[in-house]
Amino acid sequence: MASTVLKHLLFFVVVAFAISWIAQASDPDILTDFIVPENSNAINGSFFTFTGMRGVLQSSAPPNFKVTKVGMAEFPALNGQSVGFAVLQFPAGGVNPPHTHPRSAEHLFVVEGSLLVGFVDTANKLYTQTLQLGDMFVFPKGLVHFQYNADAQEPATAISAFGSANAGTVSVPLSVFTTGIDDGILAMSFKTDVATIQQIKAGLAG
Q1: For residues 199 and 206, what is the distance between their CA atoms, to the nearest angstrom?
Q2: Of 19-33, 56-70, 179-193, the least confident
Q3: What pTM, to 2 d.p., does this model score?
Q4: Order of strands across the sheet with 126-131?
């Protein structure tokens, strides 16, 4: 009898721990309407307004891929609201290299041009789609994905929404080749030689 009770108690402890861990894997719920930054006495409409995007969509296409983020760091009022945005600007032939967002899915909306997009699931299956003006695409949370403007003449722009005020971005090329992982380990992992790894690192550093 005691053994059965102990097993049930252990089961509930494990379930409670799992639920707690899952809940903490994304933005936590808050117990107030919004979070006021420390040392802030007067809160008015300006606190809930972000003006950093003014002119972004009217500017000319950048020479290289450019992302303008609006997360908790840029817009403190987002703290606790589980939402973030970004404007992605692609010159002709521009690419947003493979990357992940560990704390949120990404909902992308094409507002100019077209984009080839894709992601890889945990079974290493690639899903791709060519998006036109007005199309939307969702990249599941934590999965490696990319966006590419295949048009050699025209720029492209997209707006991304995130279910986190701090979705995080992990660039696959940068995290693998610019963080000090030993060249020999990378050469073995990618089934190539050290010279090739060093060439890739030199290209990313340029």
Answers
A1: 11
A2: 19-33
A3: 0.83
A4: 126-131, 115-120, 144-148, 95-100, 170-171
